[in-house]
Every structure is written in C-alpha cells, then in structure tokens.
Amino acid sequence: MYELSEEDIERIDKDLEKRGIVTPDLRAGLLDHICCILEQEIKSGENLEMHYEKILKRFYKKELKEIETETQLTITYKNYYAMKKTMLVSGIFSAIGFVTGGILKYFFLPGAAFSLIIGFSAFALLFLPLLILLKIRQKTEGQNNLLLMISLVASSPAVIGVLFKIMHWPFANMLMIIGFLVFTFLYIPINFYHGYKKRENRMIVTINTILFIGVAGVLFSLVNLRPSRTYNTGIMLADSLLRNNLVLSNKFTDKDKIADDQLKQAINEFKQLSAALILKIQLAEGDGKNPVSLTDLSVNNNFASVDLILFDNKNGQQKTNAEKIRLA
Predict the structure, then answer these.
(1) For residues 258 and 236, what is the distance between their CA atoms, to the nearest angstrom?
(2) Can you spell out the DSSP letters for 53-92?
(3) DSSP secondary structure letters along 264-295
(4) Euclidean distance between CA atoms 69 and 67, whole angstroms
(5) What pLDDT digit, counting tens, does each position of 111-160 carry?
C-alpha cells in the first residue's frame, strides 16, 4: 500500500484551495478522501500527479469549484433545493394551465377559466418570483440584481393583468399599465445601458432592446384592446331593435284593446319566436341541456352563439332569425 508523504499532502491541499475549495472543513474532508483513494489505488513507482488528476475528475462535471458552490448554497440557503423544486413544479403547472385553458377557451368548453387561473397564477405568483430569487442568490458574474428585481415588478402585474383581461375582471388595464410602464421606462433603458457598456455585447443588446420594445408595444395594444366600431354599432342597433320590440309588445298586452285579429296573431307569433330564440341562445351558452340565466348570458360573453343563431344564413335563401323577428 502506497503511503503519501507530508509534502504530498500539503501540495494536494494547496492545489484544492487553488481550484476554489476555500471552506476549511470542506477542503479537509475532501483532502482526506482523496488521500485515502490515492493510497489504495496507486502502486509503488507510478506517477502520483497522473493518478491525482484522474481521481479528481470523479468529484465534478466541469470544475472542482462546483463542490464549493453547492456547499455554500446548502449552508447559506437551507431551502434552496425546496425552492428549486417548487419553481419547477409551478412552471409545469403553468404550462399545462396555459395550454389546457387556451384549448378549452377556444372551443368554449367548461373548465377553461379554472385552467387559465391556475396557469397564470402559478406563473406570476410562484414561478417568476422563485426564478428571480434563485438567480439573485446564485450571484453569477456580471449579474445585475436591480434588473432582476425590476423584471419581477414588471412581469408579475402584467401576467396577472392579462389573466384579468381574458376573464373580463376589473383592474385588468391598471395592472397591465403598471407592468408596461415599469418594463418600458425602467427595465429597457437600464438593461440597454448595462449591456451596451461592453463592446462585445452591443449587437446582442441592441437586438434584445428591439425585441423588448416590440413586447412592450404588444402589451400596450392589449391594454387598449376594444371592440371595433362596427361591432359596437351592431350591438347598439340590436339593443335598439330589442327595446323597440319590447315597447311594441307592451302596448298590445291587453287583448281587449286589439281589434285586428291579424295584428293580434302577429304579435303572438313575435312573442313565441322571441321566447324560442332566447331559450335557444341560453341553451347554446349552457351545457345544451340546462339554459344559462339571462344575467350570466350578458356577462363575460363574446356573443358568438347570439351571432350564429340570429344572423347565420348558410344557404343564402332562408331568412335569418333576425329578419323573422323584424318581419313579425
């Protein structure tokens, strides 16, 4: 069995320190472990340096300093791995929520709102904060912690604002405007200034800044997203038509005042057609069996079923339901 000399042990100890193992207890334990392996595996007359380099490669993937970094993270941040695992799980839930909610929303299927709420909430309140917090704690070279904090302040309200916009909840525009202002007037200028100082990074920083401005423009467009004038005009005309028909219907509710049997029959047909169409729309917006209430029908609705039932005319000859109401 080979026996290391005091000079060999001291030389290995200094080499470990030179390679980044500066924690005394960690270096002492690693030194003892490496010396034991050397004494067991090396044979008399063999090159000590060569065996030392081979054994050292067993303890790291890229460089020996990885052990020191992991040790410091474990000592300083006891919950580091729990936070990292939580971040990954929340990221997976976010992705599933985005995809599932988007598909269900597109096909008007139940569960869309729940999936979107889970996805956006997990992304904005768990994944993004934990990601930025872990980045700050890693303290990589050239890292700007101020930019990381600003990105969190900008992204979380913006993501929540998009969720509120999709769900038609109040304060959506306010949240998105906060994210837009912080991102546009704080993050983009500071990031550009911080990166442009290094000559080798100027092209990448310029391209990133252009992309960031594009993202800010899209976010601002979402804040100001409103229905078109044609859509608003159509809603106003439909509302006016409905009000006029209701007024007309109320005038002839007393059958004794109606002298013309033909007019009486027309009004009854109009009432029956209107009631049938409203029920049809309620069923289309519900599950097909149980109609939704009129209150639920008017809230958070894109009126796709209303447009289809009232105005759809596929063969070009048959009158639409809206025309039937007007003629009645």
Answers:
(1) 31
(2) HHHHGGG-SS-THHHHHHHHHHHH-TTHHHHHHHHHHHHH
(3) HHHHHHHHHHHHHHHHHHHHHHTTSSSPPPHH
(4) 5
(5) 999 999 999 999 999 999 999 988 887 766 666 888 889 999 999 999 99
Closest by CA to 162, choosing from 130, 131, 119, is: 119
DSSP state of 198: S
Rounded to whole angstroms, the Cα distance separating 53 from 36 reads: 15
DSSP class of 123: I
Assess whether pLDDT exceeds 70 at residue 80: yes
Could you give the CA distance from residue 130 to residue 272 in angstroms, rounded to a whole number? 59
Mean pLDDT of the chain: 80
Model confidence at 94, in pLDDT bands (50, 70, 90)? Answer: very high
CA 144/CA 182 separation, integer angstroms? 16
Letter string b/e over residues 17-34, b meaning 16 or more CB atoms within 10 A of that residue's CB: eebbbebeebbeebbeeb
Q: Phi, psi at residue 104, to the nearest 5°?
A: -65, -40
Structure token pair of residue 90: 């929340």
The Cβ-side half-sphere exposure at 271, using a 13 Å CA radius, reads 13
**Cβ–Cβ under 8 Å, residues 115 and 101:** yes
Using one digit for the tens of pLDDT, what is the confidence trace for 156-214? 999 999 899 888 888 888 998 999 899 999 999 998 988 888 888 888 889 989 998 99
More confident residue, 61 or 327: 61
pTM for the whole structure: 0.53
Q: What are the C-alpha distances in Å from 19 to residues 22, 49, 57, 65, 73?
A: 9, 15, 12, 6, 18
Six-digit token pair at 280?
């049809």
**From CA 70, how far away is CA 146, in angstroms rounded?**
24
More confident residue, 287 or 163: 163
- Other CB atoms within a 10 A radius of the CB of residue 43 amount to 8
Distance between CA atoms of residues 185 and 205, nearest Å: 16
